[in-house]
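Data deposition worksheet. Section B asks for the primary sequence of the deposited chain exactly as it was used as input, without tags or linkers unless they were present during the calculation. Section C holds the resulting structure in C-alpha cell form. Section D is free text for depositor observations; keep each observation to a single sentence. Incomplete worksheets are returned to the depositor.
Section A, Depositor: J.P.
Section B:
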Amino acid sequence: HSYFGKLRDRIGTQGMADIFNQIGVSLKSSGYIVECFTFVDASHIVTKETMWKERDAALSNKEAALNNDNVSNYAADKDARYGCKGKDKYWFGYKRHNAVDMKHGLISKTAATPANVTDAKGLKHVCPKQGAVVADKGYCTKPAQDTIKKNGCHDMTIKNRNMKVKNKDKDRFISKLRSQYENVFAHNKRRAKYRTIKKVQYQCFMEAIIFNMKRLVSINAPPLEFCAKG
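Section C:
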C-alpha cells in the first residue's frame, strides 16, 4: 500500500493537474469536449463518519458546540468542514465540483472545496469559458449567476419557484436534458482517501482521469494523440 502513497508524493497535486489538463487539451483537439453545453454539479466527499471524540474534546474546553468555526482545532483533517445539502443531508469533509461536457459525458473540469462552500460559490472553479451552463436550482443564486455572466456563458440553470424569471416549460426541458448526465456523479467515490484539501484535490483529478478513460472506451473512441507540453 505504501507504493501508492510514494507515487502520489512524487507526482504531486500540481503534477496530477497537469496530466488532467493535458488530457483535456487532447480531448478538445479531438472534438470530444466542445463546451457547447456543460452540466455542472457538486457531490459530497466524507472524511470521517463520526465526530464524537472531537465533540467531547470541544465540550471539555467549554465550547458550546462543534461547528465550522472551531472544528479545525479538534479534527485530524484541518481543512475539512461540515456540509449540508437539502434539509437533512449532513457530512464532514469536502465537496467535489465537476463540469461535464454534454457531447460525450466527459469531465472537463473538477475541483475540491471544503464541504461548507456552496455549490454556487464553487462554480467559479469549474465554470467553462463559453457555451451554456446547465445546472439545478443551487446555481440560480447571485454568486453562480455572476460567475456565469463573467465567463461569458449562457444561463441554463433551473430557477426557484418564487423567481419572476422562472419558466416552467424551460425548466422541465433543462431537467430532462441534465438527467442523462447525473450518472457521472454516481461513479464518484464518496470517501476521502487522504487528508487536507490539497490531497483531496489530487484524488478528484485522478478519479476524473480514470472516469474519462473508461468513458472513451465505452464510446469506442480511437486512441488520443498527445502533444508535448510547451
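Section D:
The chain has seven helices and six strands.
The two ends are 34 Å apart (CA to CA).
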